[in-house]
Amino acid sequence: MKRNFKEWLNDFTDSIATYEYYTEFNIVYKNIDKLKVELNIMNSLIGSKNIEQDFDNLFKKYPEIRKCLPLLIAVRENEIKVIDEGEKLKYNFKTIDDIDLLKRFMRKTGLFDLISNHLVNNLVDYTTGVEVGLGSNGRKNRGGHLMEDVLQGYIEKAGFVKNQTYFKEMYLSDIEKKWNIDLSKLSNLGKVAKRFDYVVKTKNCIYAFETNFYSSNGSKLNETARSYKMLAEESKYIKGFAFVWVTDGLGWQGAKNNLEETFDVLDNIFNLKELEQGKLKEILK
Questions:
Q1: Does some domain include residue 25?
Q2: Which residue of 157, 198, 235, 275 has the lowest C-beta tally within 10 Å?
Q3: What's the domain count of the chain?
């Protein structure tokens, strides 16, 4: 019986978030621990009445403090490039030893003011908050990983074993080599290095899975739907191979036309409710 797209779309959920989705404190603490010594050394400058001279003296004694400076302005990279009065400057905080340039950085970023005027009491506590903020930028990626984890759980519930009968993050070329199957239709004769989230091997077929979750709309959704429609159409002509797409999220409400086009040509497209109903066990034979 052919499914109704509107009814299928209405079953989409608004969230799959776990507590860790919002903030991964283990990552926050790990990143802070790497710089805790340097940050505590910098704490000696808090409330300084002669901040530039005190920083100069501190750097001469402990040049390793340079490593923690980018994080004070919410940057995780070791290299920062800026345009300063028409001059292009590059700060490499692994190697920089130009104290005048460093003081210029501290002065113009406002860090001297932040530290000397006692606007913060402890730089370890301050950068912990900075790390929490930086970590929020990774929620989109964590959302994708959450969906992968959900799918993995259902694959295992269906009786498949990791690295024996199912495999994570597998390239087309690896699938071809492992099971001696020609997938050149999907890779544009080997020109595209396509990777699937999961590959499940049954007695009669190789199932290649893609999964994603979109809580908000965007141009990426239309692009994804179009590319998966192409995968679906080309997969039909490969014996012993099937493409499966598991997707969900209310973001699709704003891109439903392209999603419906893929729905119409791909039988193996499922939402989370269908996984709960045991659809994987039905198709993985």
A1: no
A2: 157
A3: 2
Task: Please indicate, yes or no, if residue 232 is contained in any of the structural domains.
Answer: yes
- In terms of domains, do 109 and 165 share one? no
Name the residue type at position 94. Answer: K
CB atoms within 10 A of CB 93: 19
Of 45, 111, 119, whose CA–CA distance to 75 is shortest? 111
DSSP class of 4: P
The pTM (predicted TM-score) of the whole model is: 0.73
Q: What is the pLDDT along the chain (285 residues), one digit of tens a residue?
A: 689 999 999 999 999 887 877 888 999 999 999 999 999 999 999 999 999 999 999 999 999 999 999 999 999 999 999 999 888 999 999 999 999 999 999 999 999 999 999 889 999 999 999 999 998 776 766 666 889 999 999 999 999 999 999 999 999 999 999 999 999 989 765 556 789 999 999 999 999 999 999 988 888 899 999 999 999 999 999 999 999 999 999 999 999 999 999 999 999 999 999 999 999 999 998
CB within 8 A of 119, min separation 6: which ones? 113
Domain that holds residue 80: 34-136
Last residue of a domain, one of 120, 136, 152: 136
